[in-house]
Amino acid sequence: MSQENVEIVRAAVEAINRRDWDAVFKDAAPSFEWDNSRALNPDTRGLFTAGEARQVFKQALGVWESARIEINEVIEMGDHLVVAHTTHVRGRDGVEAHARTSWLFTIRNGKMERGCLYQDKAEALEAVGVSE
Q1: Which structural domains are found in the chain, ordered by start?
Q2: Can you tell me the distance from the alpha carbon of 20 to that of 16, in angstroms, rounded to the nearest whole number?
Q3: How do the pLDDT tens digits run along the chain, 132 residues long?
Q4: What is the 3-state secondary structure (H, E, C) of 43-102?
Q5: Is 19 helix (H, G, I), strand (E, B) or coil?
Q6: Which residue among 95, 98, 117, 128 is the one 20 to 30 A from 77 at the CA level?
Q7: CA dist., res. 96 & res. 47, Å (int)
């Protein structure tokens, strides 16, 4: 496993958890794109540049009193990393919820070129030609 690629993703997730949006995208390639077309919330669904993705993340996490992403597993396949994770949120009324989704990142030459949201790990793996 390319430790450098894993560290890029881990650093981005840690930055999301700190709400340090500059750090989230510091390793994004100039042509970076975020595919959020599978999002359940229609307000955050679409294909975005790094700048637009920054706003999508801020909007999606901003509705919660607190939100934290926990990486459950990272599976590397060449330039691709499937990142199975759990998002832990607490609403302003104190109700807590957890959602498990997966991201698929493409990282080349130390730069994130693409990220994509999948509703489950099997879908992300299938996107790179692997079945569970």
Answers
A1: 3-126 (3.10.450.50)
A2: 6
A3: 589 999 999 999 999 999 999 999 999 999 999 999 999 989 899 999 999 999 999 988 888 999 999 999 999 999 999 999 999 999 989 999 999 999 999 999 999 999 999 999 999 999 998 876
A4: HHCCEEEHHHHHHHHHHHHHCCCEEEEEEEEEEEECCEEEEEEEEEEECCCCCEEEEEEE
A5: coil
A6: 98
A7: 29
